[in-house]
Design a protein that fits this description.
By secondary structure, this protein is mostly helical. The chain has a domain at 270-495. Helix content is 75%, strand content 1%. It contains 20 helices and 2 strands. It has helices spanning 2-11, 15-28, 36-64, 76-100, 106-125, 129-150, 158-186, 191-195, 203-219, 227-235, 238-257, 260-269, 271-295, 299-322, 328-360, 371-374, 376-387, 396-404, 413-440, 456-480, and strands spanning 67-68, 73-74. Strand 1 (67-68) and strand 2 form a beta hairpin.
Length: 495
């Protein structure tokens, strides 16, 4: 036991990287195998390795605390982010295995997937700008290869794959340009050093931040750049869509968090103009994604637009920071809670709608008409998951605290407009939620609902998520009511 603890201490915080690398090495010996038995064994091996990596990531931080050197940084926030990446990877392995296990390239696909997970972990842990950029560039390349491999049988999606990944490629180029500006201006490779130096007000630093801001906006396909994203999601394989949602997008958010300290510094210095800018962008993204979801009848497009809605919420968090409603630490917690809410809801939702589309052969919203009558259990689970998005209403809490501490006449028009933006975003979200739920209880189309048959393991899978969401909701309500929960030290409502 002491030997295991000693090894764990020496390789910390790279336990997950080493464990997944071993699985990749083992899998490479069977890369051309078509045996279903070997595929199943490798799936089990990969699943167990991800579970162990998840455990060791948390255990090493609790037992040994934070870690930092000139290349890596492993603190509380990095521990949470790596845990999110590994959790997403475990679920993505589930999607990839279901829809691609019969592929002759399955083991190669799994190797690519595990390697992309390693790159994502390195992005979170890296503190050196060159290391961050290298990890990010390799991650984008690996995701491109992975999505292409998952769509080998989807001829109609190939042109859209290239169109989609032109934007991340442009993001990589812009990131390289931004990093170069930082290095030329300061000769530093650590963003924390830049914040603490006299170079912080250098015009090249400001230009670099503008370049990074443009790169991040393009990376997330926010309005009006959503077209390649929507076209690919509409035509690609189910598992490749899951990779884009649950790997590509979260890593982009973690990449942005590397720079949120620098962004926060300049936001606080120029809060009026930046507040106006971010509020305008927030309105644009929230309205565009909400209206897009409401207008379409394609379930894929509805969910895709709603996903962009939640990506737009990250801009809302920045707007709240620029207006002085929340602090930088609160913004980080809001971002993390949003990611967790998105994963806990969209993963089971997508597992159900992909199964419905596979059964009916269509992604029309009319296919779920009468779903609440034919499959009451799954319908209730889905409703619970959809209602978890009411957690977004917690964005109102900082406004209540802020407005309660200032005179009504001194609130400021900017803060009032921002509160209005939050209210409008919440209203549009409610409209889209109830539009979907309403379909469950409409008269079903002839023969459509009868085709929908879920595998038994999917009931267990969705139930687990519904129970987790219910548990979080109950704990949150108890905390709001000031009822002490002795066995939980962490407070969900601490932001």
């Amino acid at each position: 036991m002491n030997i295991v603890l000693s090894i764990n201490e020496k390789i910390s915080p790279l336990q997950s990287v080493i464990i997944l690398s071993i699985v990749i090495l083992i899998s490479s010996f069977f890369a051309i195998s078509k045996s279903k038995t070997i595929k199943r064994l490798l799936i089990i091996l990969a699943s167990v390795s991800l579970i162990i990596a998840f455990y060791l990531n948390i255990y090493s931080f609790i037992s040994m605390g934070s870690f930092s050197n000139f290349l890596l940084s492993f603190e509380y926030m990095q521990m949470i982010e790596v845990s999110i990446i590994i959790f997403s990877a475990l679920n993505l392995l589930f999607f990839i295995s279901i829809y691609n296990v019969d592929s002759s390239h399955f083991i190669k696909i799994m190797i690519l997937f595990l390697f992309s997970t390693i790159c994502a972990v390195f992005i979170v842990l890296a503190r050196n700008s060159l290391f961050i950029f290298t990890s990010f560039a390799i991650f984008i390349l690996t995701i491109f290869q992975l999505v292409t491999s998952l769509n080998l049988k989807m001829d109609k999606s190939r042109p859209y794959i290239f169109g989609y990944f032109l934007r991340p490629t442009l993001t990589v180029i812009l990131f390289f340009f931004g990093f170069s500006l930082f290095y030329v201006a300061t000769d530093f490779k650590d963003f924390n050093q830049i914040m603490q130096s006299e170079y912080i007000s250098n015009p090249l630093i400001i230009l670099g931040l503008i370049v990074f801001g443009i790169a991040v906006y393009i990376y997330f396909f926010l309005f009006p750049f959503q077209s390649p994203y929507m076209k690919l999601i509409k035509r690609s394989d189910y598992s490749s869509n899951a990779v884009i949602w649950f790997s590509y997008f979260p890593v982009g958010i973690f990449m942005f968090s590397k720079l949120d300290g620098l962004f926060s510094f300049f936001i606080e210095k120029n809060n009026l103009y930046l507040s106006i800018f971010f509020i305008a962008i927030t309105f644009l993204c929230v309205l565009a994604s909400s209206i897009g979801a409401f207008k379409t009848n394609s379930i894929r497009r509805i969910v895709s637009f709603l996903f962009l809605f939640f990506i737009g919420i990250f801009i809302l968090n920045i707007s709240m920071l620029s207006a002085g409603i929340i602090t930088r630490i609160s913004m980080s917690w809001f971002n993390i809670s949003n990611i967790i809410m998105v994963l806990l809801s969209f993963i089971p939702i997508y597992s159900i709608i992909s199964s419905i589309e596979k059964n009916t052969g269509s992604d029309s919203i009319n296919n779920i008409r009468g779903f609440g009558r034919s499959n009451i259990y799954m319908c209730i689970s889905l409703i619970v998951i959809f209602l978890s998005w009411f957690g977004f209403a917690y964005h109102i809490n900082p406004f209540i605290k802020y407005f309660g501490s200032v005179n009504f006449l001194k609130m400021g028009i900017i803060n009032m407009i921002l509160l209005l933006a939050v209210a409008i975003a919440f209203i549009f979200l409610l409209i889209n939620i109830f539009r979907i739920i309403f379909q469950f209880f409409r008269k079903p189309l002839t023969g459509a609902v009868e085709k929908i048959v879920f595998p038994k393991f999917l009931y267990i899978y969705v139930t687990l998520y519904a129970l987790v969401i219910l548990a979080i909701a109950v704990i949150g309500v108890l905390e709001i009511l000031n009822i002490n929960i002795e066995f939980i030290n962490f407070k969900i409502t601490q932001v």
